[in-house]
Amino acid sequence: MSAFVGKYADELIKTAKYIATPGKGILAADESTGTIGKRFSSINVENIESNRQALRELLFTSPGALPCLSGVILFEETLYQKTSDGKPFVEFLQENGVIPGIKVDKGVVDLAGTNGETTTQGLDSLGARCQEYYKAGARFAKWRAVLKIGATEPSELSIQENAKGLARYAIICQENGLVPIVEPEVLTDGSHDIKKCAAVTETVLSAVYKALNDHHVLLEGTLLKPNMVTPGSDSAKVAPEVIAEYTVIALRRTVPPAVPGIVFLSGGQSEEEATQNLNAMNKLELLKPWTLTFSFGRALQQSTLKAWGGKKENVAKAQATFLVRCKANSDATLGKYVAGASGDSAASESLFVKGYSY
Amino acid sequence: MASFTSKYADELIANAAYIGTPGKGILAADESTGTIGKRLSSINVENVESNRRALRELLFTTSGALPCLSGVILFEETLYQKSSKGTPFVDILKEGGVLPGIKVDKGTVSLPGTNGETTTQGLDGLGERCKKYYEAGARFAKWRAVLKIGPNEPSELAIRENAYGLARYAAICQENGLVPIVEPEILVDGSHDIQKCAEATERVLAACYKALSDHHVMLEGTLLKPNMVTPGSESGKVAPEVVAEYTVRALQRTVPAAVPAVVFLSGGQSEEEATRNLNAMNQLKTKKPWSLSFSFGRALQQSTLKTWGGKEENVKKAQEAFLVRCKANSEATLGVYKGDAQLGEGAAESLHVKDYKY
């Protein structure tokens, strides 16, 4: 068979399809200990386990939020944490129709001889780790590959190397019952225009799907987490409708219909921008054979973090803020979002950090 | 730009979309002089220009046939021929709402060191030839790459070489205003099962779309002409629904939604088989972002040829037989063929010739 059909095939297909349910999306809450530390320091909160647990509990127990979500990506530590009532987070999520996922890559390392390009590590013993995560309740995984746009970037080496890493990761996941989210992020950093981003995104995605085919990955049991197609961070902004058109055209040219869902990353976009762009894509009258939804980290949590500030007395307010973003993005997956509904200034704040490393 | 923007871009997109109009398909009437000779000799007709012209006139002037067609592929000689009344064939077709197309490849040659695998030639001076054909009224082109299934076939070399040839041909066509039909035919010869055919088809198509992306071909201005996914010629037949399932799944896994239409070749299938299989595909309830139609040669002309036998007095009856197949296939593109086409003589006859050479 061109695609590997192992013992988990039916389950993978079902899980991937569920995650892609219109009206739902993914909360990316898989910040590593180091990364969540940066978020905490921006709101003057100490980076200790209890605070990390408190934040995730705040998010997961927000009234009304979980119905907007089909999955949550977790960092390893969180996979084994519990609510203050003693219930494992994983169980809590499952009971509320949300599938737990797990970040499995081990960050990026430089590609020697390139101009600051990287590859992602994490393949060693990945199979064994996936088995453990499956036992702990995870049913999907995430691996982030990073590419950049420059005068001679992304280089052929970087594209081939990252595509291959994603393909090996994907097939190992499928061997062990986890739906692989394939994430080839093309960073927004730069002064290039939207056409350049489109060209690079199409080239990268084409290489990714060739690699997935070479490695016998079952596309019906995968998800794609790409960047939206936008101008570079140093270039002028464009309307959501323009982003929607370039993005959907790029996907139509490269992503086979067998892929059930595309779950966008938000990159450095503000909460409001990300939602409006997703909404515009779902309103676009172009044939789209996969659902278009979200897998947002910062773009779901930014204003919630600010509202919380680490203080117990702010939890309810923070949860209400979180619900607003969840609902907004749920509406956006259906093309029903009405801009300005939230009116929160924090929601419009750009989350772009130059050369962002997780 | 990931895809190169030809000055003909809008026209290419419009023509490709038109060819994929539901209810219509392509008549492949591009048999080379040598090949048409074999057909004519099977009905005891001399292979002279006037007979070749008479056959094509018979087909193109069949009352009611042209509305079932969106395109006709011609051999170079035919592009410049006229009806007995002196009307250029190209004009007859255009007036009937049918786009003229042109076969531009120059046949296959062996790949040394392989077990009988081939590559296709015809790239030299192709740009100039395309310009001339465009001036003569052609608006699309066809190039046939051939692969086979065996213990070690198709080899990586054969796949890459043929994919490369198709991509170069496609880019050159688009530079010169012709919509390229991309035809990577995997021969049905062999005793393999349908799974093996599916695997080979998926591998080959994935390589084709990677090559097309590498060569900056604009997918919205192309068409795909693949084999259906079937068991080998020496294996047991399967139901049309099974052919449909495997074929459409293979396409879902490899053909981006930007491609407007898939126009199947009939290979060695009988007229009736080919129609039923196409019909089953269009009845299948699954994601199909491209229209599924026909580009049949033998499977449209076989019984017509037999009925004609080269005799003027048989023209009317032969035209009736041709209309029956045109209508049947038109219905099949809509999934409404009831299998009740009056079978002309030979309509159920297999047209498989081992290791068929055009």
From TrEMBL, chain A:
<protein>
    <recommendedName>
        <fullName>Fructose-bisphosphate aldolase</fullName>
        <ecNumber>4.1.2.13</ecNumber>
    </recommendedName>
</protein>
<dbReference type="GO" id="GO:0004332">
    <property type="term" value="F:fructose-bisphosphate aldolase activity"/>
</dbReference>
<comment type="pathway">
    <text>Carbohydrate degradation; glycolysis; D-glyceraldehyde 3-phosphate and glycerone phosphate from D-glucose: step 4/4.</text>
</comment>
<dbReference type="InterPro" id="IPR013785">
    <property type="entry name" value="Aldolase_TIM"/>
</dbReference>
<keyword id="KW-0324">Glycolysis</keyword>
<dbReference type="Pfam" id="PF00274">
    <property type="entry name" value="Glycolytic"/>
</dbReference>
<dbReference type="GO" id="GO:0006096">
    <property type="term" value="P:glycolytic process"/>
</dbReference>
<dbReference type="InterPro" id="IPR029768">
    <property type="entry name" value="Aldolase_I_AS"/>
</dbReference>
<keyword id="KW-0456">Lyase</keyword>
<comment type="similarity">
    <text>Belongs to the class I fructose-bisphosphate aldolase family.</text>
</comment>
<keyword id="KW-0318">Glutathionylation</keyword>
<keyword id="KW-0704">Schiff base</keyword>
<dbReference type="InterPro" id="IPR000741">
    <property type="entry name" value="FBA_I"/>
</dbReference>
<keyword id="KW-0702">S-nitrosylation</keyword>
<keyword id="KW-0963">Cytoplasm</keyword>
<dbReference type="GO" id="GO:0005737">
    <property type="term" value="C:cytoplasm"/>
</dbReference>
TrEMBL record, chain B:
<keyword id="KW-0456">Lyase</keyword>
<keyword id="KW-0702">S-nitrosylation</keyword>
<dbReference type="GO" id="GO:0005737">
    <property type="term" value="C:cytoplasm"/>
</dbReference>
<keyword id="KW-0963">Cytoplasm</keyword>
<dbReference type="GO" id="GO:0004332">
    <property type="term" value="F:fructose-bisphosphate aldolase activity"/>
</dbReference>
<keyword id="KW-0704">Schiff base</keyword>
<keyword id="KW-0318">Glutathionylation</keyword>
<comment type="pathway">
    <text>Carbohydrate degradation; glycolysis; D-glyceraldehyde 3-phosphate and glycerone phosphate from D-glucose: step 4/4.</text>
</comment>
<comment type="similarity">
    <text>Belongs to the class I fructose-bisphosphate aldolase family.</text>
</comment>
<protein>
    <recommendedName>
        <fullName>Fructose-bisphosphate aldolase</fullName>
        <ecNumber>4.1.2.13</ecNumber>
    </recommendedName>
</protein>
<dbReference type="InterPro" id="IPR013785">
    <property type="entry name" value="Aldolase_TIM"/>
</dbReference>
<dbReference type="InterPro" id="IPR000741">
    <property type="entry name" value="FBA_I"/>
</dbReference>
<dbReference type="GO" id="GO:0006096">
    <property type="term" value="P:glycolytic process"/>
</dbReference>
<dbReference type="InterPro" id="IPR029768">
    <property type="entry name" value="Aldolase_I_AS"/>
</dbReference>
<dbReference type="Pfam" id="PF00274">
    <property type="entry name" value="Glycolytic"/>
</dbReference>
<keyword id="KW-0324">Glycolysis</keyword>
